[in-house]
Design brief:
Length: 187
């Protein structure tokens, strides 16, 4: 198992708050990163993310807009269900506006470039025969809107700082290092 940590920004910047993960990734990329930590903006490139997860990470933190029914701007930490290698399984996490994942058993297409929510990526990983051996976590933010439009809403923009703090806390916890106070973290 590698000691690398992946922080993956996920989302569609053309659907308002769905661009949350991408914006968090861009802000993290502007900070000094500790050794072994990679930050990538995957946008809607879920297949790319699935292949990168199959390469192996100690911890992968996926950052995305996640509708769970809370007030807009609420930040969540979720440990998703992980399908076994060899094929997708139903269940897991649904992102905003997502229908049940389509797949061969459901009569739909296996890949949908506009539906690369974390649960679909994890199912795809199993379909590819891979298994991310490390810890996978999702830092999600409750969206106010995922309608077509560029730019985050006020509550989601206000949650970016909290999400970044949560990401760094998770990196510290899962790398075996002590948690540093937010004021001392990577500037």
């Amino acid at each position: 198992m590698t000691e690398r940590t992946l922080i993956a920004g996920i989302g569609n910047i053309f659907c308002s708050d769905d661009g949350f993960g991408v914006e968090v990734a861009h802000r993290l990329l502007a900070q000094a990163l500790p050794p072994g930590v990679e930050v990538k903006d995957y946008g809607i490139r879920g297949l790319h993310l699935a292949y990168d997860l199959a390469a192996g990470f100690r911890t992968a933190i996926l950052v995305d807009a996640v509708a769970r029914g809370g007030p807009p701007g609420t930040v969540y930490v979720i440990e998703p269900d992980r399908p076994p290698a060899g094929g997708p399984q139903p269940g897991g996490l649904q992102s905003p506006g997502a229908a049940a994942p389509a797949g061969p058993a459901a009569g739909g297409p296996l890949l949908d470039a506009h539906g690369m929510q974390p649960d679909v990526v994890l199912q795809m990983l199993g379909t590819l025969g891979g298994a991310a051996g490390g810890k996978i976590l999702i830092v999600g933010c409750e969206p106010a809107s995922t309608d077509y439009g560029i730019g985050l809403t006020g509550p989601v923009t206000a949650a970016i700082g909290e999400a970044i703090s949560v990401v760094w806390r998770l990196v510290d916890e899962h790398a075996g290092r002590p948690v540093q106070p937010a004021g001392e973290r990577h500037r």
